[in-house]
Amino acid sequence: MKQWVLILGCSTGHGGATAKRLAEEGYGILGFHFDRADIKKQALKFKEELSDINGGRVHFWNKNAADIDIMNEYVPIIKEIVGDGTLKLLLHSIAFGTTMNLLGEKHVSRKQMDMTVHVMGMSMLYWTQKLHDAKLIGEGSRVMGFTSEGNYVSMEGYGPVSVAKVAMEAILRQIGWELGKFGITANIIQAGVTPTRALTKISDRWEEWIKRTEYRNPMRRTTTPEDVANTVSLLLRPEADFINCSTIHCDGGEHRSGRIY
What is the rounded end-to-end Cα distance, in angstroms, of the chain? Predict the structure, then answer.
């Protein structure tokens, strides 16, 4: 029986695909999502699907995983579930933030900026601190997050998220540097343009982005959540023990092509 993994943002997109892939490999799935209405129903259905796959080793919590109080409340619960062992993976896949310009007639506010950077960047640090203090990550554990080409490409409305992603990258590099001596690695995966619910929230031009990506990508298609899940799976193998403090590109070579924005 394999270890447990903790996925922040587990119900859809990259997080959802990773949860399914790792459940198929026998990992226990601990997941946070923050959904309402029909999306919440879909998340509950997805939880049951995973439970059928891995023999019921699934716990989902419909809570704001970026909330410090939620972290403090649930780390002991996670500890009780995991027992004397450690998590194999902490994966940050929360995609929630403000998409608007930094300047102009209608520009981002301090509250919106702080929220976006905290949710999509800083919350990774606080989860890692609390899990490490609770001895829930140790030898062989992985800490991972997701970034995008928007970490270095400027585009309409993406400023706050870009800042959050750059913060996430810096945090993960530092986590890997500080915890490497304990056999804990930290890396970030840069996916290509992926048709997910999160993409539709970034720009009203998302359909155009998909068409241009299919032309621009060397493999003539967009990235899928399953591509990303496969990359996470590879990085959990013992053969990846020495990959640390790195950005892993999962985009078919898209980042080497011309921009679409």
Answer: 45
Tokens of 109: 């506010």
Question: To which H or E segment does residue 187 belong?
Answer: strand 185-191
Residues of the chain predicted below pLDDT 50: 261
The total number of structural domains in the chain stands at 1
Note the pLDDT of residue 80: 98
* Contacting residues for 52 by C-beta, under 8 A, at least 6 apart: none
Separation in Å, CA 204 to CA 198, 201, 208, 260: 12, 7, 9, 14
Looking at residue 150, its pLDDT comes to 81
Structure-block tokens of residue 172: 């993960």
Written as six digits, the tokens of 120 are 């999509």
The amino acid at residue 239 is E
The set of residues, in sequence order, having a beta carbon less than 8 Å from that of 150 and lying 6+ positions away, is 158, 161, 162, 165
Distance CA 60, CA 208 (A): 34
Q: What integer pLDDT is reported at residue 130 of this predicted model?
A: 98
Cα(166)–Cα(65) distance, integer angstroms: 20
Q: Which residues does residue 145 pair with via DSSP β-bridges, in sequence order? A: 92, 188
Residue 258 domain-assigned (yes or no) = no
Residue 60 sits in a domain whose CATH number is 3.40.50.720
Structural domain contains residue 55: yes
Q: Which pLDDT score is estimated for 254?
A: 86
Phi, psi of 85 (to 5 degrees): -85, -165
Please compute, for residue 41, the number of CA atoms within 13 A of its CA located in the half-sphere on the CB side. 2
Q: What's the confidence (pLDDT) of residue 18?
A: 98
Expressed as residue numbers, the domain containing 11 is 4-251
The reported pLDDT for the residue numbered 203 is 61
pLDDT score recorded for residue 152: 85
Torsion of CA 55, 91, 4, 196, to 10 degrees: 0
Any domain includes 257: no
